[in-house]
């Protein structure tokens, strides 16, 4: 049963990766095109690409570990991303939006 789930997961990962890569590429091309015509650069147009980049990174990151330790590696990756989000929120967003 576990082997069939792994095969199905690998098959889904192979089918989903080109779609995620295409989404990242098209969003990057759109941001570059917009930045060529707008005097102020707009990096916020890349925000929709962040989930696709995170999924691609996590899929590749987890393949570096043996199957017995992948769940622990996934938990560490989620904890690290959550910590980065909290750091970005409290170090940059709160001071920038806090009134005077």
- Globally, the shape reads flat
Mean pLDDT: 81
Structural class given helices, strands, pairing?
mainly alpha
**Main sheet characteristics:** none
Describe this structure in words.
By secondary structure, this protein is mostly helical. Helices cover 77% and strands 0% of the residues. It has helices spanning 2-37, 50-62, 70-97. Helix 1 packs antiparallel against helix 2 (50-62). 0% of the residues are buried.
Features:
flat, 3 helices
Give a brief outline of the structure.
By secondary structure, the chain is an all-alpha fold. It is 77% helix and 0% strand.
How do the strands and helices of this protein lay out in sequence?
Elements: H1 2-37, H2 50-62, H3 70-97
